[in-house]
Amino acid sequence: MADADGVKALGGLLNGIAQRVYYSNSEITEELLRSEIYPDMLQEEFHALHEKMRGILKSMATADMDQAQLEAFLTAQTRKQGGGGLSSEQAAALGRFWKAHRARIRESLLAQSRWEPGLRSVNWRVDLQTASSRGSASNAPVALVELELGRNGQDSEFVCLEFDELKVNHVLKKMAEIQESIDSIVHHS
Question: Which of 28, 51, 54, 87 could join 20 via S-S bond, C-beta 3.0 to 4.6 A?
Fold first, then answer.
């Protein structure tokens, strides 16, 4: 019975860590988890367990481990010598937790890494103006660009832009400069 209680408590701890770190629930604190789940454990012992589990979850989340990677990772953790390793019960609890929470944690990490507002779509076309507002004939091409912008859970906003050939060339030049900067950073790291 004590092992079952320990596994249940560890599941509660993992859920608490996920709530705080991945689901942005600021009401969950380390002290709250200790007092609710491990009230008899010394603060130093609990802190060590908390940090160990938080680190393991971070490794699992950062790698977005599939089942094979997870099994290899947890096996390696159980084979660690000294106090840094996991018991087989802890590894099993982590495995169950990860199967249940992987998709939600992944979505949370993706959402945290997005800039807001985000670009939802781009529509464009090129028109030829056949006459100007003053009635004179003109064959200048005009690029019309519609950007759909939005924040998560909110309606979209639309921005319409009109570019003549000179402005299109300027935008393309700036985009090429941005690409060069990205390439130089990627090749240097």
Answer: 28
Full-model pTM? 0.63
> Which residues, at least 6 apart from 88, have a Cβ–Cβ distance to it below 8 Å?
78
Element spanning 92, H or E: helix 88-112
Residues 6+ apart with CB under 8 A from 149: 117, 118, 119, 120, 156, 157, 158, 159
The model's pLDDT over 4-26, given as tens digits with 9 standing for 90+, comes to: 778 899 999 999 999 999 998 99
Cα–Cα distance for residue pair 158/150, rounded to 1 Å: 9
Domain parsing of the chain, residue ranges:
2-112, 118-188
The Cα 114–Cα 31 span in angstroms is 31
